[in-house]
Design goal:
Layout lengths: L10 E4 L2 E7 L8 E8 L8 E3 L3 E7 L2 E5 L2 E5 L4 E4 L5 E4 L6 E8 L4 E3 L12
Antiparallel strand pairs: 1-2, 2-3, 3-10, 4-11, 5-8, 5-10, 6-7, 6-9
InterPro entries: Cupin_2 (IPR013096), RmlC-like_jellyroll (IPR014710), RmlC_Cupin_sf (IPR011051)
Protein name: Cupin
Length: 124
């Protein structure tokens, strides 16, 4: 299935953020899972790690992201590259929603706190 239209894009929520699944194995992708992430204004960060490198490309709004001990301002047109197995968090301190496209290789998982690794449902 080379084209995924808006009727095939499920929306999930986790910790107040919204994730719209665009491409994943269940929607025909074999190499990368791709989704739109939306962080509403004032949403606090959730520290987590990923088992594979993730890339976020900002579309709208502004967010602050911490990778390890460094903090970055993420603005439209910028790309944030999150290394695997590194503490990561992102939050939206601004007055408007932050939206980005996220890309994670198929099979990548998230780990929140001391929890077990899990595949985000939007990446299945």
């Amino acid at each position: 299935m080379p084209l995924v239209d808006s009727t095939q894009t499920p929306i999930f929520t986790l910790h107040g953020a919204s994730f719209t699944g665009m491409a994943s194995p269940s929607r025909g992708a074999t190499e990368n899972a791709v989704w739109l992430v939306t962080l509403p204004p004032g949403l606090p960060a959730v520290r987590h790690q990923l088992t594979r490198e993730e890339t976020l490309v900002a579309l709208d709004g502004r967010a602050l992201a911490s990778i390890g001990d460094e903090t970055f301002e993420v603005t439209p047109g910028s790309a944030l590259i999150v290394p695997a197995d590194t503490d990561f968090e992102i939050h939206n301190p601004g007055p408007q929603a932050f939206r980005a496209v996220a890309i994670l290789p198929v099979g990548g998982q998230a780990v929140i706190g001391d929890g077990a690794p899990f595949t985000p449902p939007w990446a299945v």
